[in-house]
From TrEMBL:
Residue ranges occupied by any Protein kinase domain in the UniProt entry: 575-842
Record's protein name: non-specific serine/threonine protein kinase
Keyword Glycoprotein included in the entry's annotation: yes
Topological relation to the membrane, as annotated: Single-pass type I membrane protein
Sites where the protein binds ATP: K603
Gene3D superfamilies for this protein: Phosphorylase Kinase, domain 1 (3.30.200.20), Ribonuclease Inhibitor (3.80.10.10), Transferase(Phosphotransferase) domain 1 (1.10.510.10)
Organism: Fagus sylvatica (Beechnut)
Catalytic activity: L-threonyl-[protein] + ATP = O-phospho-L-threonyl-[protein] + ADP + H(+); L-seryl-[protein] + ATP = O-phospho-L-seryl-[protein] + ADP + H(+)
CC per GO annotation: membrane
Keyword check for Transmembrane: yes
Annotated transmembrane regions: 513-533
Name of one Pfam family that matches: Pkinase
InterPro entries attached to this UniProt entry: Kinase-like_dom_sf, Leu-rich_rpt, Leu-rich_rpt_typical-subtyp, LRR_dom_sf, LRR_R13L4/SHOC2-like, Prot_kinase_dom, Protein_kinase_ATP_BS, Ser_Thr_Kinases_DiverseReg
Length: 871
């Protein structure tokens, strides 16, 4: 290979010489050009040999076009000045790069390219480098001293790696640095005092390391500093008062260290601050009044310290505040009335202090408030009715106080409410029935109060805790899967839940029972595959039915013309239990090997329905339609048998059973690696999209869950069980009873009972998270609503039985997760359509930065940009 290369160099050089000659240059110039071009060829050759651009079979073509390669910039003379491979996996090909061949390189971006091992010392030969980005990799070892020879550097980023050791004091040589980002590594030792020589610095990020010692007072030299992040280290000692000379600071974070002493009163000098976090340190004394001079502050976090005294009323000057957290301190006194002037507040956390007095009714002025947490204080008085003005409120925590009076029905006007906690107070009223209007409510905790009256039925599909109150009456039957502890400690509750006495029938409970019976029998009927069109149809077909003899074999679809009823009876020895492979509410599933050798699955339905005369042709028609569905990710229904003695459906057999079973089994779950999981998700999306957008009438499955996704021998996904599917006929009412599997049902179904395609989209979102996590996300979703989960990283919730995904799959996983969050939006309209989801999966996305380190909040944020609710 090598000889070929050099021959082509000569050819190119020679061509260049001829060119130079013919454009009226003297011989001498030709020679200069030739030597220049051979230097250029060296660059091209180094690029070729790096393998970063794949294997080029036509090397001469590569060499003559190297300035046109993706990520390469050359200067006018044709010498390489910029290399940008950000987001492209290089891995160990990194080591093949000949750094010494690029004397003119000014910019090298290798962000997120899968680099590992130590930083190559040769990098220091790039003497003209002004920008070096090695972030989002897995580099280890120390920061090499030779790196500090790159004195032209203006920007140096190496965040999110595993670099250890201390920061060399020679970093102080890099006098031109404007940005230094060493965050999220394993740096130890002190902040070198030489760092304060970097007087041009505008951005300094040292956060998320293990740096100890105190903040050097000389930091005051960094006059141009605009962002200073020192959080998540082991810094001790006080906040140096000299810090307040950095009047250009806009962002200052010292959070999660062990900084002690008081907040310097001079902090009021930092007039440009927009973001200040001193959270999670050991700061004491009171909040300095001068803090109220920081009128540009948008976010102020003093949480988790030992700050005492009361909240200064002057805090009301911080008119731009959108985020205010004073949580987990030792604050006393009452909530200052002036606080309600902070009308831009979206987040207000005053929880876990010793604040007393009552909640000022003027809090209703904070119209933008979305998160309000006053829990774990000494608040008294009643819940102000004005809270009902807070229509943006999603999280309201008033628990663990001494609040008395009733739960105001007006809270039902807080139409965005998702989480409500009023537990551990002295509330005495019934649970307002108006809360059924809170369409987005996902979790409600009313435990440990003195609430009276009955349990409202609208709590279906909501996580709730009603324990330790004075509730009475029947526990609605559809709560029977809830834990005993949800209801424990009440006065007179009865029902079918273990630990409670059965209810004595009274006229009232009889009526309730009737409803309950209807609620349970109807889904069973629907589960059977009975598609309820309208009364008209039923009546019409009833009359047609009379002509059909009871006991007739209605139909059996020919499976390649080879299935006969008798074959099936024979193959299963008349449905002997030995052939049974699963049981559900609808009936049992059998495996049958036909005489032809074909294996099929039989779903034998319960007998009850066969005796129902309305079980008519419409069933047959719908089943027939399902047999006509042709999609590679939908289980094929070959036919059915409807007979007085037995009814069954004939399906394609899926060797690996349900997704749920595979995920529940540690060995099988390991077999389902990340790539397979992503493919399963895509398959399901395509199948549902087909049902929603390519079938006429539209088919809404209504019971998408991991139980109803089957896997074949290659672990490919097939949507199955159309037992509850509803064909959306534009003329028919879409109103129906709630069917589906608890934990996958779209929230709106609980109150509107209107089935749309968006219900399936929601269930799909749940299944996607379940596939990524290995278990149903139920509790996680609720806990994600709490502010403390903002830092839950995506990789922490991924199925831990599998090794972490490599970076390439990680892109897919992050993308799939953001889609899932879009599908799980509470408002059906803002969920994407399955067509859109399916198309997104088909079109390859540009990779994001290292996705797996992203927090959940980021995935949710990202999902906001995905689909704006329009088709
Ligand atoms: C490039 O060539 C090497 C060695 O011939 C081979 O191992 C590698 O798979 C090739 N890469 C591509 C992308 O073709
Ligand atoms: C290589 O590329 C050059 C220029 O692009 C072309 O002239 C030549 O024919 C190619 N050689 C081969 C073997 O394809
Ligand atoms: C590089 O690309 C530009 C435009 O894309 C083109 O004009 C130029 O001729 C190309 N250069 C070479 C050496 O291929
Ligand atoms: C980084 O490298 C270390 C040690 O080489 C390894 O244990 C770890 O799994 C790697 N991390 C990633 C995300 O590749
Ligand atoms: C700070 O920034 C200003 C304007 O951007 C610049 O003129 C000055 O040289 C920088 N350095 C110092 C040390 O002030
Ligand atoms: C502060 O920043 C501004 C630009 O935002 C700059 O013009 C000024 O020079 C900086 N001040 C100092 C003291 O560096
Ligand atoms: C608080 O800071 C300590 C280190 O001082 C850290 O270990 C802990 O994780 C931090 N807690 C939070 C909630 O950030
Ligand atoms: C702060 O902590 C250091 C030890 O890290 C201790 O020596 C010092 O006395 C403390 N200062 C205050 C004001 O508590
Ligand atoms: C707050 O309430 C707790 C428990 O009721 C009590 O021990 C504490 O003294 C109270 N604190 C104040 C400041 O009132
Ligand atoms: C039923 O839902 C379909 C699809 O969402 C819609 O087109 C139709 O208008 C709805 N019908 C009624 C009566 O609401």
């Amino acid at each position: 290979m090598a000889p070929n290369v050099s021959i082509s160099f000569l050819v190119v050089a020679w061509v260049l010489c001829i060119f130079m000659h013919t454009t009226n240059t003297v011989n001498a110039a030709g020679i200069v050009a030739a030597s220049q071009s051979s230097a250029l060829d060296l660059e091209a050759k180094a690029l070729l040999e790096s393998g970063w651009w794949g294997n080029y079979s036509n090397q001469s073509s590569f060499i003559s076009h190297h300035c046109n390669l993706s990520g390469i910039q050359c200067n006018h003379g044709g010498s390489v000045t910029e290399i940008d491979k950000g987001g492209v996996y290089l891995g160990d090909k990194f080591r093949k790069f000949n750094f010494s061949s690029f004397p003119n390189l000014v910019r090298l971006n290798l962000q997120e390219t899968g680099l590992r091992g130590s930083i190559p010392l040769e990098i220091s030969t790039l003497s003209k480098l002004t920008e070096l980005d090695l972030s989002w990799n897995n580099l280890t070892g120390d920061l090499p001293l030779s790196l500090t020879n790159l004195t032209q550097l203006v920007e140096f980023s190496i965040y999110y790696n595993n670099i250890s050791g201390s920061i060399p004091k020679e970093m102080g040589n890099l006098k031109n640095l404007l940005e230094l980002d060493l965050s999220s590594n394993n740096f130890t030792g002190l902040i070198p005092s030489s760092l304060v020589d970097l007087t041009e610095l505008v951005y300094l990020y040292l956060d998320s390391n293990q740096i100890n010692g105190s903040i050097p007072p000389e930091i005051r030299n960094l006059k141009n500093l605009s962002s200073l992040y020192l959080g998540y280290n082991r810094l001790t000692g006080p906040i140096p008062s000299s810090l307040v000379d950095l009047t250009n600071l806009t962002y200052l974070s010292l959070s999660s260290n062990q900084i002690n002493g008081s907040i310097p009163p001079e902090i009021g000098n930092l007039k440009n601050l927009r973001y200040l976090s001193l959270r999670n340190n050991s700061l004491t004394n009171s909040i300095p009044l001068s803090l109220s001079h920081l009128t540009n502050l948008v976010s102020l976090n003093l949480g988790s310290n030992q700050i005492n005294g009361s909240i200064p009323p002057e805090i009301a000057n911080l008119k731009n505040l959108s985020y205010l957290s004073l949580h987990n301190n030792s604050l006393t006194g009452s909530i200052p009335l002036s606080l309600v002037d902070l009308t831009n507040l979206v987040y207000l956390f005053l929880d876990s202090n010793q604040i007393n007095g009552s909640i000022p009714p003027e809090i209703g002025n904070l119209k933008n408030l979305s998160y309000l947490n006053l829990s774990n204080n000494n608040l008294t008085g009643s819940i102000p009715l004005t809270l009902s003005h807070l229509t943006e409120l999603t999280y309201l925590y008033l628990d663990s106080n001494q609040i008395s009076g009733s739960i105001p029905v007006e809270i039902a006007n807080c139409s965005s409410l998702v989480n409500l906690s009023l537990s551990h107070n002295y509330l005495t009223s019934s649970i307002p029935s108006q809360f059924s209007d809170l369409k987005f409510l996902r979790s409600i905790d009313l435990s440990y109060n003195n609430l009276i009256g009955n349990i409202p039925p609208y709590l279906i599909n909501i996580n709730f805790n009603l324990s330790y109150n004075s509730l009475e009456g029947q526990i609605p039957t559809f709560f029977q899967n809830h834990s005993f502890y949800t209801f424990i400690g009440n006065k007179d509750l009865c029902g079918d839940i273990k630990g409670f006495p059965p209810c004595l029938p009274s006229s009232r409970t009889k009526r309730q029972l009737k409803i309950v019976v209807l609620l349970t029998i109807f889904p069973t009927l629907l589960l059977l595959g009975y598609f309820f069109y309208s009364r008209y149809w039923v009546r019409k077909k009833q009359s047609e039915l009379r002509g059909i003899k009871n006991g007739d074999l209605f139909s059996i679809w020919n499976y390649d013309g080879k299935i006969a009823y008798e074959d099936i009876i024979e193959a299963t020895e008349d449905f002997d239990i030995r052939y049974c492979i699963g049981t559900g509410g609808y009936g049992s599933v059998y495996k049958a090997e036909l005489p032809s050798g074909k294996v099929i699955a039989l779903k034998k339905l319960h007998r009850l329905e066969a005796e129902d005369p309305t079980f008519d042709k419409s069933f047959k028609n719908e089943v027939k339609m399902l047999t006509e569905i042709r999609h590679r990710n939908i289980v094929k229904l070959h036919g059915y048998c409807l007979h007085k003695r037995c009814m069954f459906l004939v399906y394609e057999y899926m060797e690996r059973g349900s997704l749920f079973c595979v995920l529940s089994n540690d060995v099988e779950a390991m077999e389902l690696d990340w790539t397979k999981r992503v493919n399963i998700i895509k398959g399901i999306a395509h199948a549902i999209s087909y049902m929603h957008h390519e079938c006429i009438p539209v088919i809404v499955h209504r019971d998408i869950s991991s139980n109803n996704i089957l896997l074949n021998s290659k672990l490919e996904a097939f949507v199955s069980d159309f037992g509850t599917a509803k064909l959306l006929d534009p003329d028919s009412s879409n109103q129906t009873l709630v069917v589906g599997t608890y934990g996958y049902i779209a929230p709106e179904l609980a109150y509107t009972m209107v089935v749309t395609e968006k219900c399936d989209v929601y269930s799909f979102g749940m299944v996607v998270l379940e596939i990524l996590m290995g278990i149903h996300p139920g509790e996680l979703l609720t806990s994600l609503s709490s502010p403390s989960s903002q830092h839950v990283m995506l990789n922490e919730i991924l199925d831990q039985r599998l090794p972490p995904p490599n970076r390439l799959v990680a892109h897919d996983i992050f993308f799939v997760a953001t889609i899932a969050f879009a599908c799980l939006r509470t408002k059906p309209k803002s969920r994407p359509t399955m067509k859109w989801v399916s198309q997104e999966f088909l079109s390859r996305k540009k990779p994001l930065a290292n996705p797996i380190m992203y927090s959940f909040t980021m995935a949710i944020e990202e999902s906001r940009n995905l689909y704006d609710g329009r088709e």
